[in-house]
Design brief:
The chain has a single domain (about 5-250), classed as Aldolase class I (TIM Barrel), CATH 3.20.20.70. Helix content is about 45%, strand content about 15%. The longest helix has 16 residues, at about 140-155. It has an eight-stranded parallel barrel with strand order 1-2-3-4-5-6-7-8, surrounded by five helices. The chain is α/β, with parallel strands linked by helices. Helix 1 packs parallel to helix 2 (about 45-55). It has eleven helices and eight strands. Bound molecules: 2-phosphoglycolic acid (PGA). 2-phosphoglycolic acid binds near residues 172, 213 and 231.
Length: about 250
Amino acid sequence: MRRKTVVANWKMHGNLASNRQLLEGYVERLSSLAHVDVVVCVPYPYLAQAQLLLKDTAIAWGAQNLSKDPVGAFTGEVSASMLRDFGATHVIIGHSERATAYCESDENVATKFMQAKVHGITPILCVGETLIEREAGVMDLVVAKQLDTIINTYGASVFADAIISYEPIWAIGTGLAATPVQAQSMHEFIRGRISALDEAAAQSVKILYGGSVNPQNAVQLFVSQDIDGGLIGRCSLTAQEFEGICRAAN
Ligand code: PGA
């Protein structure tokens, strides 16, 4: 059975003082949870702080984006090896907030995914459809295209030990999570697509659900066979709510 993983996505929230409080809260509340992997993805400037405060704990840390290039004249970018320098083990890739606001293409996302893999960082690849696409019934096609850009370039085996997060865009930050049935159905579709090409990769890839997960709906979501945990935005910003979600996974 795959161990559940819960990832906090702080987005662009926090400061040194509030982060310290939140991370100390995580450590205090989550240390006794032995059956769940917890990761916190912080804004870049706070990687050193996460490293300092989490270094002797079971909580891992990472970033919310990385450069598609390894090194060079790319003003404002942060490379995979820089993330490694700060002990980052995970990185979120292709979050829809980046795709929408910064015109991130599927091709760029695929290159970033590989940069993370090459540097030994676990990529957390976000996929998901808009509300219009769901209402039109084409969500499977949309998600398949997002996956296929990576599969066609690097092969399905790159998903071994990686993380995919299914995040329907209509569920992010709206308070309206996908139902367990909707989520499980998409997770099964994603695993099936990888399984058709590489069964071992399909069994080892963790598929998280993201979008308005809270302590109340977490158990119902996590109990589904193909839902291996969650990517948590708003409810990761208070230690108590995040604990509720991590307990559900545990
Ligand atoms: P949310 O965000 O939990 O606030 O909906 C999830 C995400 O965007 O990763």
